[in-house]
Amino acid sequence: MRWIAGLFALALFTQPASADPWQPSDGDKLAFDVLRDGGAFGTHIVSFSKNGDALTVKTAVELKAGLGPITLFEYFHDVTEKYDAGRLTWVGSRTKNEGKWKTLSAQAGEGGLRVTAEKFKGLLKGLVIPSTHWNEDEMKQATMFSTETGEMLPIKVKDRGVEKVKIGTGETIDARRFDVDSDIDASFWYDASGRWVKCAFETQGSKIDYVLRALPK
């Protein structure tokens, strides 16, 4: 489930990823209801807070599946990203999967982003975009930084053009679809402003859909 972790920026360390990325406002939120084969599976919520040039992004993923009172699957992933004037300065996360907790921390410093995580400990140089998915610039890269394991995951992205997407309010909007080939194949949709508005993928024979509750005002 590493992709979900993400299953996840204006995530820059050394340079901007695009000329005009979406600029979230203080208090903005991307709240998704996650469906598994059409039924409730959990939530994925990305919250933004700003104070001058400082931006904090918090991601909270909670997924559960069970049979009656018995929990068969449980996944939690919390991520905090911090930026200063558009530059990534810190990432921290904790993840519970298969009953075990693991943590990640990444601090910007001289020469790059120093990471301490389950699968990688060391220095990442150059462009670093966390796998929190809210930044459309993630779709323009050949790798992304796993906020669960610390690895730089290779990805292949195909732009499928603009499609109609229905959000939780019943509103239908235009959004550009990107199909991503990674450890789990997934599709992501972003509206004309660059806001993440939908996600869909299949895993272990089940279809997972992210439905955005409402667009940020």
Overview of this protein structure:
The protein has 217 residues and is mostly beta strands. The chain has one helix at 2-5; strands at 29-36, 39-51, 54-67, 70-84, 87-97, 100-109, 112-116, 121-124, 143-145, 152-154, 156-166, 172-181, 186-191, 196-203, 206-212. Helices cover 2% and strands 59% of the residues. The strands form 2 sheets. It has a 13-stranded antiparallel β-sheet, with no helix packed on it. The chain has a two-stranded antiparallel ribbon with strand order 9-10. A hairpin with a 2-residue loop joins β1 (29-36) and β2. The two termini are 31 Å apart.
> First CA to last CA: what distance?
31 Å
| Poorly predicted tracts of residues | 1-19
Number of DSSP strands? Answer: 15
Count the helices. How many?
Answer: 1
* Main beta-sheet annotation: 13 strands, antiparallel
Overall mean pLDDT: 89
- Widest beta sheet: strand line-up: 8-7-6-5-4-3-2-1-15-14-13-12-11
Run of helices and strands: HEEEEEEEEEEEEEEE
